[in-house]
Amino acid sequence: MEYKIAVIKGDGIGPEVTQAALEILDAVGEKYGHTFHYTEVLAGGCAYDVHGHPLPEKTMEVCKDSDAVILGAVGGPKWDDLPGDLRPEAALLGLRKGLGLFANLRPAILFDALKDACPLKPEIVGEGLDICVVRELTGGIYFGERGMKETDMGMSAYDMEVYSEMEVERIARVAFDMAMKRKKKVMSVDKANILESSRLWRRTVEKVAKDYPEVALDHMYVDNAAMQLVRNPRQFDVIVTTNMFGDILSDEASMITGSIGMLPSASLGEGNKGMYEPVHGSAPDIAGQGKANPLATILSLSMMLKYTFGLMEEAACIEEAVMSALNEGNRTGDIAAEGEAVLTTEEMRTAVKKFL
Ligand SMILES: NC(=O)c1ccc[n+]([C@@H]2O[C@H](COP(=O)([O-])OP(=O)(O)OC[C@H]3O[C@@H](n4cnc5c(N)ncnc54)[C@H](O)[C@@H]3O)[C@@H](O)[C@H]2O)c1
Ligand SMILES: CC(C)[C@H](C(=O)O)[C@@H](O)C(=O)O
Ligand SMILES: [Mg+2]
């Protein structure tokens, strides 16, 4: 089969990890007889530098016309002083909203070989720890009204958290559908003791739960959830939460897997189209040094094969190759224990490729 994919390498370590992942995808294509056609387009800081805008129209057009989008990462200190709508991160929000990708799946799975890289005690993580954060991605405070105004205390700035029942209901359904294929447990995380938007969130999730009598639903305030994730992560199966809480909790959950360099993501909407990106950012501190862990991006492409193309065997092939490469002791700096040999991004890619 032939597949059309838009590729946005982005800024910082984005191009390094994306390149490594595309080489893995090509090798999988060769093995199973698929051709992946890539159209490379700019978004983020690099697009601002060339076109004066982080999300050029052409980029959006190509993404809309593709089956899937692969994104490395955007942003970096070079663009930090730009106004909000011209910052690289605005491109990310524009892509998510423009493509209708309201459901962000962020699986945090601790591979056996990485138990030493996980900062939690072995008895706390146990065997086969597997949590999936389902983050609402096109609403909430990221997309509410924002602005600045003069007050008698000087300038004040505001960002509004707004959720509609429709937005909460559709993300809740994604979480419950996912839980049905897993351990049938959903933890909805909010701040309903304070926020009106969270009270609507909670009521709506409760309503959706009635359609899933087999799934156990619990609620937790976000501050407690942040604590429980490190105290007893095994209590979680699927976590469903808002745009901002999901952003924060998924970075926290990534450390359970050993490193943010291990956490993949899929952003999905109503159809099959999806955007696939690692959870981490452009890591300016290690950019251009060959130090970045490409596994989060490689695993994101495995999610793409599964969710957009329905290629389950091919997706499993990538996951197994990653597992084998880790079992063989291959480590980038972020997941290496003291004294362990450290591979470059390219060496890690080669280690995975060997097991495809
Ligand atoms: N999806 C995205 O494009 C995305 C996501 C998060 C942050 N960002 C942007 O990236 C820039 C940097 O943000 P930040 O520093 O807060 O977060 P970051 O995720 O880029 O980096 C945080 C820390 O994790 C390390 N790290 C991240 N990815 C790694 C990898 N693959 N291998 C090894 N180490 C890795 C970095 O070196 C750094 O020490 C900012 O401009 C931010 O807005 C973009
Ligand atoms: C860069 C930023 C806008 C983005 C987000 O907050 O969604 C990132 O942190 C992420 O997790 O994808
Ligand atoms: Mg984030």
From TrEMBL:
<feature type="site" description="Important for catalysis">
    <location>
        <position position="142"/>
    </location>
</feature>
<keyword id="KW-0432">Leucine biosynthesis</keyword>
<dbReference type="InterPro" id="IPR004429">
    <property type="entry name" value="Isopropylmalate_DH"/>
</dbReference>
<protein>
    <recommendedName>
        <fullName>3-isopropylmalate dehydrogenase</fullName>
        <ecNumber>1.1.1.85</ecNumber>
    </recommendedName>
</protein>
<feature type="binding site">
    <location>
        <position position="135"/>
    </location>
    <ligand>
        <name>substrate</name>
    </ligand>
</feature>
<comment type="function">
    <text>Catalyzes the oxidation of 3-carboxy-2-hydroxy-4-methylpentanoate (3-isopropylmalate) to 3-carboxy-4-methyl-2-oxopentanoate. The product decarboxylates to 4-methyl-2 oxopentanoate.</text>
</comment>
<dbReference type="GO" id="GO:0000287">
    <property type="term" value="F:magnesium ion binding"/>
</dbReference>
<feature type="binding site">
    <location>
        <position position="223"/>
    </location>
    <ligand>
        <name>Mg(2+)</name>
    </ligand>
</feature>
<keyword id="KW-0560">Oxidoreductase</keyword>
<feature type="binding site">
    <location>
        <position position="223"/>
    </location>
    <ligand>
        <name>substrate</name>
    </ligand>
</feature>
<dbReference type="Pfam" id="PF00180">
    <property type="entry name" value="Iso_dh"/>
</dbReference>
<dbReference type="GO" id="GO:0003862">
    <property type="term" value="F:3-isopropylmalate dehydrogenase activity"/>
</dbReference>
<keyword id="KW-0100">Branched-chain amino acid biosynthesis</keyword>
<keyword id="KW-0028">Amino-acid biosynthesis</keyword>
<keyword id="KW-0520">NAD</keyword>
<dbReference type="InterPro" id="IPR024084">
    <property type="entry name" value="IsoPropMal-DH-like_dom"/>
</dbReference>
<feature type="site" description="Important for catalysis">
    <location>
        <position position="191"/>
    </location>
</feature>
<feature type="binding site">
    <location>
        <position position="247"/>
    </location>
    <ligand>
        <name>Mg(2+)</name>
    </ligand>
</feature>
<comment type="pathway">
    <text>Amino-acid biosynthesis; L-leucine biosynthesis; L-leucine from 3-methyl-2-oxobutanoate: step 3/4.</text>
</comment>
<dbReference type="InterPro" id="IPR019818">
    <property type="entry name" value="IsoCit/isopropylmalate_DH_CS"/>
</dbReference>
<feature type="binding site">
    <location>
        <position position="96"/>
    </location>
    <ligand>
        <name>substrate</name>
    </ligand>
</feature>
<keyword id="KW-0460">Magnesium</keyword>
<keyword id="KW-0479">Metal-binding</keyword>
<feature type="binding site">
    <location>
        <position position="106"/>
    </location>
    <ligand>
        <name>substrate</name>
    </ligand>
</feature>
<keyword id="KW-0963">Cytoplasm</keyword>
<feature type="binding site">
    <location>
        <begin position="76"/>
        <end position="89"/>
    </location>
    <ligand>
        <name>NAD(+)</name>
    </ligand>
</feature>
<comment type="subunit">
    <text>Homodimer.</text>
</comment>
<feature type="binding site">
    <location>
        <position position="251"/>
    </location>
    <ligand>
        <name>Mg(2+)</name>
    </ligand>
</feature>
<feature type="binding site">
    <location>
        <begin position="281"/>
        <end position="293"/>
    </location>
    <ligand>
        <name>NAD(+)</name>
    </ligand>
</feature>
<comment type="similarity">
    <text>Belongs to the isocitrate and isopropylmalate dehydrogenases family. LeuB type 1 subfamily.</text>
</comment>
<feature type="domain" description="Isopropylmalate dehydrogenase-like">
    <location>
        <begin position="4"/>
        <end position="352"/>
    </location>
</feature>
<dbReference type="GO" id="GO:0005829">
    <property type="term" value="C:cytosol"/>
</dbReference>
<dbReference type="GO" id="GO:0051287">
    <property type="term" value="F:NAD binding"/>
</dbReference>
<dbReference type="GO" id="GO:0009098">
    <property type="term" value="P:L-leucine biosynthetic process"/>
</dbReference>
<keyword id="KW-0464">Manganese</keyword>
